[in-house]
């Protein structure tokens, strides 16, 4: 559910900015999504920044426009970079100031960062809001459910692993007591149960279902910014009818940003070319309908021409293949 | 004779599970207990090595992965290599020369496992998959025929590692399993505690060493029945004329 929420949020962010030249690369969400706060109380919360691209998000800054009755302060030193495919977590505290009355309040905030593709740099400004529910009596304490990785999780996982290795070493003596077998089985069952409960089985299935062409070495990943040749621009301007493209991608696919940027470049060269980015993890049915899924495997990046149903997979020699698909080969 | 027939059947079942996607079943949540590329168009199970690299990239503490691998390991250890893994089966089909080369080289597979995880973390990419011979065979080649991939530099790199591995398999039996397989490294950790194990009756053992030439992994079962390289294929139990060696399924081991 959490994964679905994350990808839905990311898909919405992508789909809401189809005309923008620069796309956000960070998926931003607050944790918890709704903060419950009593008058005079205090609560900690996090802002998670998930980088689903191959580019580094730099100069990350967060600013809040707090009302007079609420105060937001950073709890730790602010991290200003989010590496490719990493998740940055910013910790904040929210204080209720005198005069705060029960009800729901919204605190607007913005996340500003920049990223570069070769020599082209883009600054992104994400405007969001934090929902605060002010209640007189909080039943069962503050509802804070951290979703990110926490130090205690590493400590427990490390202890479990150490116990496991210790049991294996005892087992090397060949006379393995049944109690050691019992401990081993408990650790294994606990790890499996916790992993499944945390949605890791679904995550594993998702990873295996989507085939990113550069990930298994079907082709080389391309990280550079695409530059259309003058001939290609002229050819695109000769496009005689409106064409719609669907660009199927996955957030963690290494070559997908290149495919998206190239299609954007092509669409900028002609008014007749429309496009939409599709996150295959959110819109599996659409991917299946357009033949992006074969034998249960979704292949990304894939560009589909909607009217003819033609599909182009991968990024190798993509510009020429797309021009051919559009019927405007120079 | 009977044991080898059972083993071939089990290996056939492993191959069938690896290619079960022909029925139209999509990807499941199951981790494959062996080296089998999940990018294979017919795969319905997840490659543990491919998955762990992705989890390292995502920064996920891999509870589910660890639980599944440990559960497999505690039940059978490296018996999966000898009885189930399709790539192990290919090693068997090509391996004729069972001699030992250098035993210490067998620790290279632990380095391969460590390097696989380290490179995934350093480059945020599944580096091992780009040279994995199982991926070459099960993904690279099929996708060229399916028109998804083209003959390019990554494809040629795949073909290079595949050719090298196949040559190694022909020259040394179970070459990949002995020296380089990261999956084998994972399962070998559990070899001394797994329920499936090789048992030696020391009263009956004449130390004739008939078992050694039969071992595809180049081991000496009469000297160390719990070697981390043992794939529990049972070839030694068939070669032992005194009946001192046997395959068992039990938590208790003979001292």
Provide a count of the helices of chain A. Answer: 8
Q: H/E series of chain B, N to C?
A: HHHHHHHHHHEHHE
Query: What coarse outline of chain A follows from CA principal-axis ratios?
Result: globular
| Beta-strand fraction estimate of chain B | under 5%
How many β-strand runs of chain A?
A: 16
Q: What is the element string of chain A, with H for helices and E for strands?
A: HEEEEEEEEEHHHEHEHEHEEEEH
The pLDDT mean of chain A sits at 77
Structural class, judged by helices and strands of chain A? alpha+beta
Biggest interface: chains and residue counts?
A-B, 63 and 67 residues
Derived from helix and strand composition plus strand pairing, the structural class of chain B reads: mainly alpha
Strand order of the largest sheet of chain A: 2-9-8-4-6
Mean pLDDT of chain B: 89
What separation lies between the terminal Cα atoms of chain A? 47 Å
Low-confidence stretches of chain B: none
Strand order of the largest sheet of chain B: 1-2
**What share of the residues of chain B lie within helices?**
40-55%
Uncertain residue ranges of chain A = 10-21, 138-149
Largest sheet of chain B: 2 strands, antiparallel
Proportion of β residues of chain A?
A: 25-35%
CATH superfamily of the largest domain in chain A: Immunoglobulins
What does this structure look like?
- The complex is a heterodimer of chains A (330) and B (255).
- By secondary structure, chain A is α+β, with helices and mostly antiparallel strands.
- Chain A has three domains: 15-134, Sandwich (Immunoglobulin-like), CATH 2.60.40.10; 151-198; 230-326, Glutaredoxin, CATH 3.40.30.
- Chain A has helices spanning 2-15, 151-171, 178-197, 200-209, 230-237, 256-269, 284-289, 318-326, and strands at 26-31, 34-37, 42-51, 57-64, 70-74, 81-82, 87-96, 103-117, 120-134, 210-212, 243-249, 273-279, 293-294, 297-300, 302-305, 311-313.
- In chain A, the strands form four sheets. A five-stranded mixed sheet of chain A has the order 2-9-8-4-6, with no helix packed on it. Chain A has a four-stranded antiparallel sheet with strand order 1-3-7-5. Chain A has a four-stranded mixed sheet with strand order 12-11-15-16.
- In chain A, a hairpin with a 5-residue loop joins strand 15 and strand 16 (311-313).
- In chain A, helix 2 packs antiparallel against helix 3.
- The longest helix of chain A has 21 residues, at 151-171.
- The model of chain A is unreliable at 10-21 and 138-149 (pLDDT under 50).
- Chain B has 255 residues and is mostly helical.
- Chain B has one domain (2-188).
- Chain B contains twelve helices and two strands, in the order H-H-H-H-H-H-H-H-H-H-E-H-H-E.
- Chain B has helices spanning 2-18, 48-58, 63-76, 79-83, 86-94, 108-123, 133-145, 153-171, 175-179, 182-188, 211-214, 235-239, and strands spanning 196-200, 245-249.
- Chain B has a two-stranded antiparallel ribbon.
- The longest helix of chain B has 19 residues, at 153-171.
- Chain B is globular, with a radius of gyration of 18 Å.
- Chain B starts with a helix and ends in a 6-residue tail after the last strand.
């Amino acid at each position: 559910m959490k994964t679905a929420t994350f990808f839905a949020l990311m898909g919405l962010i992508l789909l809401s900015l189809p005309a923008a030249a620069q796309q956000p690369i960070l998926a931003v969400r607050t944790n918890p999504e709704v903060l419950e706060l009593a008058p005079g109380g205090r609560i900690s919360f996090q802002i998670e920044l998930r980088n689903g691209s191959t580019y580094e998000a730099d100069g990350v800054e967060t600013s809040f426009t707090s009302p007079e009755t609420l105060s937001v302060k950073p709890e730790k030193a602010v991290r200003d970079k989010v590496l490719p495919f990493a998740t940055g977590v910013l910790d904040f505290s929210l204080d209720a100031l005198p005069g705060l009355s029960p009800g729901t309040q919204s605190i607007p905030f913005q996340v500003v960062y920049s990223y570069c593709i070769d020599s082209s740099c883009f600054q992104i400004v994400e405007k969001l809001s934090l929902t605060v529910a002010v209640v007189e009596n909080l039943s069962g304490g503050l509802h804070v459910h951290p979703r990110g990785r926490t130090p205690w999780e590493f400590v427990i996982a490390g202890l479990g692993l150490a116990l496991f290795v210790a049991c294996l070493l005892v087992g090397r003596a060949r006379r393995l007591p049944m109690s050691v077998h019992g401990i081993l089985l408990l650790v294994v069952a606990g790890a499996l149960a916790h992993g499944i409960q945390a949605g890791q089985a679904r995550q594993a299935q998702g990873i295996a279902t989507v085939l990113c062409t550069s990930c298994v070495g079907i082709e080389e990943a391309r990280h550079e910014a695409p530059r259309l040749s003058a001939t290609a621009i002229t050819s695109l301007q000769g496009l005689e009818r409106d064409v719609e493209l669907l660009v199927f991608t996955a957030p963690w696919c290494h070559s997908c940003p290149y495919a998206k940027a190239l299609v954007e470049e092509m669409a900028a060269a002609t008014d007749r070319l429309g496009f939409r980015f599709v996150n295959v993890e959110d819109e599996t049915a659409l991917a299946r309908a357009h033949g992006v899924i074969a034998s249960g495997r979704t292949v990304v990046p894939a560009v589909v021409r909607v009217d003819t149903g033609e599909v182009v997979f991968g990024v190798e020699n993509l510009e020429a293949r797309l021009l051919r698909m559009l019927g405007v080969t120079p | 004779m009977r044991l080898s027939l059972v083993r071939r059947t089990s290996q056939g079942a492993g191959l069938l599970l690896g290619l079960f996607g022909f029925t139209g079943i999509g990807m499941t949540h199951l981790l494959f207990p062996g080296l089998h590329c999940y990018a294979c168009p017919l795969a319905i199970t997840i490659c543990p090595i491919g998955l762990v690299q992705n989890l390292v990239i995502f920064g996920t503490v891999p509870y589910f992965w660890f639980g599944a691998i440990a559960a497999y390991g505690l039940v059978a250890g490296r018996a999966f290599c000898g009885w189930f893994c399709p790539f192990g089966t290919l090693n068997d089909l090509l391996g004729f020369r069972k001699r030992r080369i250098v035993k210490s080289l067998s620790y290279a597979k632990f380095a391969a496992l460590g390097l696989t995880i380290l490179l995934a973390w350093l480059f945020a990419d599944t580096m091992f998959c780009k040279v994995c011979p199982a991926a070459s065979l099960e993904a690279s080649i099929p996708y060229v025929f399916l028109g998804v991939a083209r003959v390019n530099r990554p494809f040629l790199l795949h073909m290079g590692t595949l050719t090298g591995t196949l040559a190694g398999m022909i020259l040394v039996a179970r070459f990949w399993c002995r020296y380089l397989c990261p999956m084998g490294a994972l399962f070998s950790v559990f070899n001394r505690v797994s329920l499936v194990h090789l048992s030696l009756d020391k009263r009956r053992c004449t130390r004739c060493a008939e078992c050694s030439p039969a071992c595809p992994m180049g081991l000496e079962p009469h000297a160390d029945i719990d070697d981390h390289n043992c794939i529990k294929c049972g070839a030694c139990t068939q070669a032992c004329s005194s009946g001192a060696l046997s395959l068992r399924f039990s938590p208790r081991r003979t001292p």
